[in-house]
Amino acid sequence: MSSIHATSLPTGHALREAIRRRERSAEEITRAALHDAESLQGPLHAYIRLLPERALERARRIDGLVRAGEPLGTLAGVPVAVKDLFCLQGEFTTCGSRILENFRSPYSATVVEKLEAAGAIIIGKTNMDEFAMGSSCENSAFFPTRNPWDTTRVPGGSSGGSASTVGARTVPIALGTDTGGSIREPASFCNIVGVKPTYGRVSRYGMIAFASSLDQAGPMTADVRDAADVLEVIAGYDPMDSTSVDVAVPPYASELPDDLHGVRIGIVAEFEASIAQGDAALAALYKQAYKDLERLGAQLVEVHLPHAQYGLATYYLIAPAECSSNLARYDGARYGRRVDGDGDVYAMFDRTRAAGFGDEVKRRIILGTYALSTGYYDAYYVRAQKVRTLIKSDFDSAFAECDVIACPAVSCPPFELGAKSQDPLAMYLMDYFTIPMSLAGIPALSIPAGYVSDLPVGLQIVAPAFHEGRMLAVAHAYEQATQHAAARIPAVRSEGARAS
User: Any idea which residues carry the catalytic annotation?
Assistant: First the structure.
């Protein structure tokens, strides 16, 4: 079989070491990853576009460095996929939307430049919910992406393509973005690690905006070690991004313990009450996860987030308001798609936006424009910002009692394609456990925690601002003790699923 890792859990750090030891070449690994991505595109539709020529040229460059005995970067020769809202110079960047279908970026995003400087081989741009608006990856203008564990089900969104390709073991690393849960939820659904860093920790320059006060780029990886390596590469101050924060980036991968002795882990009382009212099997899975953390030496303490229940309402005022403003630039006049207005510029605006945007994007633009309109701005947008402050204050109080928080990443296992697509409210409720952290601007990750009816579910670990290392340390110890992701092979890797 040509697959580089069809029956084993791939890791970027293992591939990198094989290249350094000259056991394998970067070109061989890249060709295998491209073959896998292409052969699984039919059942998964994880990619909007593969980049074989670019990838192979860079792989040969890495092999040249190896032959010359030159020093190699942290991700040298590792195949990586990036969500199609990161600009890549000279390549199409669609954001999953018809309005940007033929847009070629004149420059690369800072995070993309950092990945390539570290030796990563970008093999393609992954599918996503249009402009990152969705929780299932069904809102793409091109096609829905499917879950590698069950192709009748969604991979989560909006970073569904990135999650699907890592979950299918095609590449060990992908880049996603998280505004209200768009890394953590698909990571949970696809049985991988997904990290949302602190707001300001990773540059947003060259990352097409949805909601500017919430968007963050982060790694989606095969294991915690890869997540630590990638975060260390992409994090750091960037003068090109006014929201970037100049805080030192620690060596995350060198601080990954195997036990949790002395660590206080907060269990959110309000979240536990909520999950207990839902799926009994899911509630039992999370209770077992907490016991596993305790078995590793952690002390579990009860904490409270009394305003978290208002997170959804708060988010769906702030995020659409910012999206309404950010997406005003797509009018057909400057770049992207243009529909002729028969000499009337306003007709051109209307026709371009009507043809270029999908239903969910239009829905959020209308919601946001309404919330910002005269007479409603104070009643909705300003009030939502005040609640956001209260949510952040709740987290500050909670972290006075604990080092990290452990809580559900999702309220259900992966659901069937089409099950929620006609019910926007049901889809929005998918983000109940992830939105509060986004509003507070603090880091959070999802890590595989087991299975419900053979479908993967993730545990969320949350830390105070700029304490990603603490969060990764807890996740690593849990991962090493439980090995949930390594225990099973995704269904799409079977010969029957591949043949379909």
Answer: 83, 158, 182
